[in-house]
Amino acid sequence: MALSGMxxxxxxxxxxxxxAGSFLTGPAAPxxxxxxxxxxxxxxxxxxxxxxxxxxxxxxxxxSPSVVSIQSADARIGGGGSGFVISDDHVVTNDHVxxxxxxxxxxxxxxxxxxxxxTVVGSDPSSDLAVLALDSPKGDVEALEFGDxxxxxxxxxxIAIGAPLGYAGTVTQGIISAVDRPxxxxxxxxxxxxxxxxxxxxxxxxxxxxxxxxxxxxxIGVNSMIVSMAGYMGESTGNIGLGxxxxxxxxxxxxxxxxxxxxxxxxxxxxxxxxxxxxxxAVIADGSRAVEPGGPADEAGLESGDVIVSLDGRRxxxxxxxxxxxxxxxxxxxxxLEYERDGTRESTSVTLGATAD
Length: 357
Known about the structure:
With 357 residues, the chain is mainly beta. It has five helices and 21 strands. Strand 6 and strand 7 form a beta hairpin. The chain is elongated and about 70 Å long.
């Protein structure tokens, strides 16, 4: 099933299922810029056969030591996911991985089998990101670098590394199939919503939180969701070539905020959006308090019942899609909105506020 304007897909923690949805076309990505000197990566093990660093095998050799599998500290509890090192003692993963493991304790495993307990530094369900602090980090593992997802181009080669179905250190290769794909993990205010990088690199339950890297070994996205087909007896099948990753530019911004402040903030219009409305567009909810008095929407003249139909010239097809669009904006930015009121289309400018939701 799909929300209007948003592809509803399944989170890919261990054991997660899948939902199919309708497809949308996002805007074209900017042209790729020339590569610089390259990311600083791990040296391959001396006993390994030599591979050119520009090959898939060469990139995988150098990135894999910085990718970890994430499990419960209680061996009796299943599930888990993947993550990657961003500093000596910090690891990035998905919120939907860490949130189900946090109560019983989290343990990470490096590619060589080294273990460390971990605690959650900060998490953000709406972007499906979390940062973990390691109790016993390995000092000889290079932190992975974030690439520039704005330069991602359809057809670019990418590599996914993680622990699908618990098989740690799994490497798969594919291309970027689409960019700016609006996706959601479900309905309601607590669902994850963002404009994703779509890839056909094979990712499955357990790949959640692992890196999607470019040909230079930079993290271009954080694997988060898949579409899968229903199988026999209500079971769900795995990869069908439709995977979605949180773009690195959004991930880096959220991660830095979580590390620095244990929280993050997003652009906000200061109005409650009716996420259940079947009307095309983003409907401002009913009620006298739906528009925050003195907030951005109020200052711009928006009212309860108005239907926002475009943001900066881009069509808004649902409330969920508007929320995903706001994830790409910075608080304090001025945006142009078109909205409908009583059958008449109007336009206004809104200076975005900030919210932690």
